[in-house]
Design a protein that fits this description.
Shape: globular
Low-confidence stretches: none
Number of helices: 6
Order of helices and strands: HHHHHH
Helix content: 55-70%
Distance between the termini: 19 Å
Length: 151
């Protein structure tokens, strides 16, 4: 799959029931492995995001859509941004209802990965998405070059 074909799961495609950590990691991994490769999500990282207050603590050890949506964003942004920068972007992005804000991010990410202008986002978020897309594009090109040399 190419980056241009990537579909970031929308809010309604995320599990509607609260999940335990291992289930959350599986959902996040499924969402990101097409663009980031396998082994992206770890419990240690999720716990550090909770400790840093980038994600609310789970309720009774279960995570809901809000948690999963924010984790998907953070795992993408951590490739190019510091924790403080991620927090600032998240604060700018989630300026209203979580579902609409997350879906707006997904659409903007897909636009960026397709090589289109990132639209309908606050400037800080658009810049972060462009940086993330650029990093993913570099990684894909390097991978294609490696595969090409192996053949």
């Amino acid at each position: 799959m190419t980056l241009k074909e990537y579909h970031c799961p929308r809010w309604r495609e995320l599990p509607s029931i609260p999940l335990y950590m291992d289930q959350v990691l599986s959902v996040v991994e499924d969402a990101l492995s097409p663009v980031c490769g396998a082994g992206v999500a770890t419990a240690a990282t999720v716990n550090s995001y909770v400790k840093a207050k980038l994600v609310n603590p789970p309720e009774k050890k279960k995570y809901d859509r809000r948690h999963i949506a924010r984790l998907i964003l953070m795992y993408l942004f951590k490739r190019v941004l510091s924790m403080a920068e991620i927090k600032a972007v998240m604060d700018a992005l989630f300026d209203g209802e979580d579902e609409a804000c997350y879906n707006r991010f997904c659409a903007a990410l897909e636009q960026g990965l397709a090589g289109d202008e990132v639209a309908d986002c606050p400037p800080l978020c658009a810049a972060a998405i462009r940086a993330c897309c650029g990093k993913l594009q570099v990684e894909q090109l390097l991978h294609e070059d490696e595969v090409g040399r192996i053949k």
